[in-house]
Design a protein that fits this description.
The protein is an alpha+beta fold and 68 residues long. The protein has 1 helix and 4 strands; from the N terminus they run H-E-E-E-E. One of its GO terms (molecular function) is nucleic acid binding. One of its GO terms (biological process) is transcription initiation at RNA polymerase II promoter. This is TFIIS-type domain-containing protein. InterPro entries: Rpa12/Rpb9/Rpc10/TFS (IPR012164), Znf_TFIIS (IPR001222).
Amino acid sequence: MDHAAGEFTQLIFGDAASEFTLPRTKSVRCATCGDSLTVILQATARCEEGMTLFFVCCNPSCGHRCRD
């Protein structure tokens, strides 16, 4: 089965909070709910850009995503 790049991105972000092997930090607060436990992902946002840090809130009722 073939997938588009956007599908992989959505899958990674959608499961990030429940994936316990990903690095987490308490030093970044969620802008939406204020929770302090956040997953950190590093990926390319676009082919022509370098690596970007993405943060995903671990609060199950929030799941807010942002990038640095």
